[in-house]
């Protein structure tokens, strides 16, 4: 049986969180299929530095490609590593982060192998498929689930005939967890020159600037998010005040970002950040599917909306029907009073 592969991204010698999230998901898929979970990582000076960040997620076999020129990432050598490795190993599933690197690498690998690729999946599952056209039945395909047609439908995409079934997933969409079962944990260090021709190293990265994240939205335990119903940039200050009191972070809908009330890096949803806070307070947010995609796994959802029929109220645990500008100052006032 062919295995599940995860491409692990690194920054120096640090494995990206999105890769660990994908390893966790990959392990579950491999268990369902009764196959191994394999991982591949490529960089410079990473031997004995990355293994401990990858194996605990339940990896049976890890391929570490360590050579000069493999970090910082450039397209050609990483593409050849995956293409040539996948030709040898024939994985049935290959997962990558929907990051700048994954978005560059995934399509190059899938087009070289003439397999399919579904970008930005929000769920991955195993299931059967009956092809009505050919009358063929397929067992155990990867359901690559994501919003499609501008978010109006949630599509389940399958790739019955070509391998690997490739998907990218954005950071934060899957949850990472160390594996509690037993995995083989084998590590191999292939000869990079066998996979990557010298001509792949023509591009040299001369300088890089890595910007630190401006907020902690992704990891915040409490998110106070504002939508178009907040009404103005000034009103957003109230949300920042409430978030400060609660030791949380401010998020926003795309409508609020587009209105220029808050920076884009605070956008929650399909084309923003995915968050899993303990508490999500949605202020003046209607709850369109593209927004919900980024926050539906929050522990408790509180909606503040002057429309009792707002779609977000259907997934909210608590609904406060009222105007943001009336409710939020009261929340700040009473929280301050009661938390002393
Ligand atoms: P609205 O839909 O206008 O809702 C405003 C809400 O505020 C209403 O429910 C209203 O009842 C309420 N309200 C009004 N006044 C008040 C008040 N004074 N007090 C209390 N409540 C009030 N959106 C995202 O958020 N994230 C994404 O990542 C994202 N990606 C997208 C990707 C694509 C391809 C597309 C097509 C769209 C995407 N969108 C995304 C946009 C999305 O479809 C919605 O347009 C957007 O989420 C709406 O934002 P909103 O809920 O703030 O605004």
Automatic annotation (TrEMBL):
Domain Electron transfer flavoprotein alpha/beta-subunit N-terminal span(s) in chain numbering: 4-205
Top-rank taxon: Bacteria
InterPro entries assigned: DHS-like_NAD/FAD-binding_dom (IPR029035), ETF_a/b_N (IPR014730), ETF_a/FixB (IPR001308), ETF_alpha_N (IPR033947), ETF_asu_C (IPR014731), Rossmann-like_a/b/a_fold (IPR014729)
Keyword tRNA processing: no
Gene3D superfamilies recorded: HUPs, TPP-binding domain
Pfam families xrefs: ETF, ETF_alpha
UniProt KW keywords: Electron transport, Transport
PANTHER family per UniProt: ELECTRON TRANSFER FLAVOPROTEIN ALPHA (PTHR43153), ELECTRON TRANSFER FLAVOPROTEIN SUBUNIT ALPHA, MITOCHONDRIAL (PTHR43153:SF1)
Protein known as: Electron transfer flavoprotein subunit alpha/FixB family protein
Record organism: Hallella faecis
